[in-house]
Amino acid sequence: MLYSLKHTSDTPVCQLSQGIYLANRYMSISLVTVIAVDRYVAVRHPIRARELRSPRKAAAVCLALWVVVLSSLVVRWHLGLQEGGFCFRNYGRHGFSTIPFSMLGFYLPLAIVVFCSLQVVTTLGQRPTTDVVQVEVTRRATHMILANLAVFIICFLPLHVVLTVKFSLGLNTCAARFTFSRALSITGKLSDANCCLDAICYYYMAKEFQDASMSAVSSSTPHKSQDSQSLTLT
Q: How far apart are CA 201 and CA 213, in angstroms?
């Protein structure tokens, strides 16, 4: 990366740097999308989820995602498509050719994540329950799903809006190029923050569910002891 900052021409090292950078971004988007679909299937179709979910299938899906992401980057490289990022100063000439990559790489996953998240939240809210522990677990799960959705939108939507506007309208003036460069720098850093924010969200999600599970176990223990005592007395 330091080499790319010093040598701003279209060098192999620069292409490799941006390739790794883009692979990390779109693999993150893909994983969030797959997790959202997995939640949707588990909540909306719990019986079918038992057939579809397994460690081997999860590994196969991850491998397929890597193949798709890396293949798309190879296609971008052969077409000479650039985003004008941290190491590229040439803004490229294939504006409308780049829009399909943004559509498939973000806007389609965005629609899937929003649909699956809202469906899961709606389903959880419609489940009737009088158990206090289950109500708390549902509330926490709903909050974490909405938090993950908000992080996904806040981190990735501004960047892809900037890229879509840039490639749709073009950069015909120096002022437009300067504005795009500043906007890309800010929104790019925002998308980079997704790695940290996702880790924090999933950490608290695991902690919340662990605490809820422990409370569920502890609350069921008195009932078990009372049942055993009643059996002993009889």
A: 18
CATH number at residue 47: 1.20.1070.10
- The answer to whether residue 58 sits within a structural domain is yes
C-alpha span between 168 and 175 (Å, rounded): 17
Tens digit of pLDDT for each residue in 120-158?
999 888 877 667 777 777 888 888 889 889 999 999 999
Q: Which residue has the tokens 């052969």?
A: 78
Q: Is residue 225 part of a domain?
A: no
Total Cβ atoms within 10 A of residue 88: 18
Domain for residue 229, yes or no?
no
Q: Which tokens is 18 given? A: 């941006």
What is the per-residue pLDDT for 73?
Answer: 80
Residue located via tokens 């509330």? 139
